[in-house]
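Lab meeting prep.
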Amino acid sequence: MVPGCLFCPLRWLRGWLVLLLLISPALAPAQDKYLTHKGTVSFFSTSILEDIEATTTQGSALIDLSSGQLAFSIPIRSFQFKRTLMQEHFNENYMESERFPKSSFKGRTVAFDAAALRKGGSQRVTVEGDLTIHGVTRRVTASGALELQRGVLLVNAYFSVAPADYGIEIPLLVRENIAKTVGIKVSMICEPMAGSAPQNAALATPVP
């Protein structure tokens, strides 16, 4: 058994059901909504025995700039490790991907100024919401940045999660040899929803 893979909680985001909530007609017009199905999410944890790292490019996100609502979803099995055995242990022994195939987040930005964002430049944001990993949902607060650039919305965030908070068990044999938290990095390029137009003409130049 590879000890490190135990500590690979990634947990983000539970399925399209969450995303569909944000497509409700009760929310803002389509031009305020941005989405992607190819977002990058990675996690990293230091271990005395071996560092643990994995990445996926199958993160889905829907962000409504008008209401400040946002949702993310990611298939757990999409995470790729450098070592095949570590990936198997991550899915079978720790994340139990067959039982809990997705992780999700649903929440909203706090004190977010959409008008300022449309004028250009990166804006720091704080997000609050429900994070579901391994079938466990907890209220979390995380920091990140949003930026409108050439008609697309750039989303970046970094935060830490403790596997123990989500019922992910670490064998006693290696429990003291690995970090208690895992750092999670999110980087996404979200396109306007179909039928929408960029909010700022200066941002309308297509991305090369």
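Slide two material, second protein:
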Amino acid sequence: MDGPDRRAGALLATVGTALGVAGPVMVLRGRRGRKEIRAEPAAQKITFPERGLPAELAAYAGRRVETGPEAHAYAEFIKGNLAHATGGRTYAEITTELHATGGDDEKLSQLRQTAFTGQSLRASLMSAYQAWHLTTLVTGLGAALTGLGVALVGTADALAPRSPNHS
């Protein structure tokens, strides 16, 4: 192998090695992130009620929230309850109504607090759901980079000159 081919082989080997190291790190970080996502709802002891769930969430009855999809489902449960409690109005809309009354309406103040709490809980659960997807992406990309790194190192090895005694 001449100079340019040797340099190309060295570059393939270097990039392959770097990807072969980065890939497993990404897989480990993705798995560790997934474990952290599972731990937080478990620590909060978030559990779907046994009864009273809408039909589309009935399969979750009595289950603990431990995964991203379960966090999403619970966020949808909160969304339905919140819409019922607020008449479909958001925190911002209720705040506008409260300000229009001079801020002295106790019922609207309590409703605004309910909306704030519900929307905050829902946002936290949706963040867990989004993080779940990111850990899936990081783990998948890590696995792909590992495979690519191995392939590049193998290609560099196949391109390397062999001594006459080596076959």
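Talking points for slide two:
The chain has four helices and no strands.
The chain has a mean pLDDT of 92.
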